Amino acid sequence: MLSKRIIPCLDVRAGQLTKGIKFKDNIDIGDPVEAARRYYEEGADELVFYDITASADSRDIMIDLVRQVAEVIMIPFSVGGGIRTVEDMRRVILAGAEKISVNSEAIKNPLLISEGAKAFGSQCIVLGMDVKKVDASSSIPSGYEMVIHGGRIFTGIDALAWARRAESLGAGEICLNSIDADGTREGYEIYLTSLISSNVRIPVIASGGAGNPEHLCDVLTRGRADAALIASMVHYHSYTIRDIKTYLDSQGVKMRMFW
Prior knowledge:
Elements (H helix, E strand, L loop, with lengths): L4 E9 L2 E6 L2 E7 L1 H11 L4 E5 L11 H9 L5 E4 L5 H9 L4 E4 L1 H5 L2 H10 L4 E9 L10 E5 L4 E6 H11 L3 E6 L11 H8 L6 E4 L5 H9 L5 E4 L1 H4 L5 H10 L9
Parallel strand pairs: 1-4, 1-12, 4-5, 5-6, 6-7, 7-10, 10-11, 11-12
Antiparallel strand pairs: 1-2, 2-3, 7-8, 8-9
């Protein structure tokens, strides 16, 4: 049985670590480089860095900040935001990232996934999925719609169909973010996570809603996620990575312990 992963998420806006609720009302909460160092030292398995306004602002990712984060950690590091071309991917990898997350631009140009996989290997290409539940009258079969540009634009694309297509194009992993649960600290959306995890063969990272270690246990077991993304519960010092892993290990969830 493979170990489950705990992955702190660094949402960055204008160079600052930021956090919102349901993709709205973001507030700046600190230095992303110092946060990255702390989570690495506490035993995080990986880190994710999102430049959350790069795509919406039609600008390049803050590559200098990516480089600064990479210099203070020695764990896998995924970076997303404003990545439009294979050359953008190359710049991010050369700055120290092991994985590239594509989201809005991949929906606009799905071949970006296959081009990236061909250039760097599928293991480097993470599909970021920002997903919102739609009402029963919607024509979207799964009941979940893809949303892009930081929750600003609804696409009419079915989330399950998109996950399957992205896998066929060469995505090596999915980071599945529930907009409805994001920042609420009320728990992950278990049904959505299980739906996607059960219908693709690549690893799925659950994102959105973590508030306590029990929530992670739930999504890593019932939700069938391979990893759990966390933000508020560690950004606001409610828990440490060690606290979370110790609890999960006590519940029989296989973890990599670094102490």
